[in-house]
Write a structure and sequence with these properties.
4-stranded antiparallel beta sheet; 1 helix; mainly beta
């Protein structure tokens, strides 16, 4: 599956991640372990889901290395996504 990946690096758990999309898409905020499983097509846990309104804001729940993945759920097409961390 194709996806847009943003490696957010280490976050302290008190930040808010803001994702802006040009159309509806699946947005996943994941720690490194879950991102690696997602990338391999395995089971993974994430915060997010199918986002239809932007900007989408999500709080980082705890310290760690975080990633954002944006995809179209297997559908064809292109998407643009902006990701920034407010801290």
């Amino acid at each position: 599956m194709e996806f847009i990946h943003n490696d957010l690096g280490h976050l302290n758990g008190n930040e808010v991640v803001v994702i802006t999309l040009d159309k509806a898409a699946n947005v996943r905020l994941m720690d490194s372990s879950n991102f690696n499983s997602y990338r391999r097509g395995g089971q993974h846990r994430f915060i997010g889901g199918h986002i239809t309104q932007t900007p989408y804001r999500v709080a980082v729940p705890h310290p760690g290395h975080w990633h954002v993945a944006v995809d179209l759920g297997g559908y064809s097409g292109n998407i643009r996504a902006g990701v920034r961390v407010l801290g």
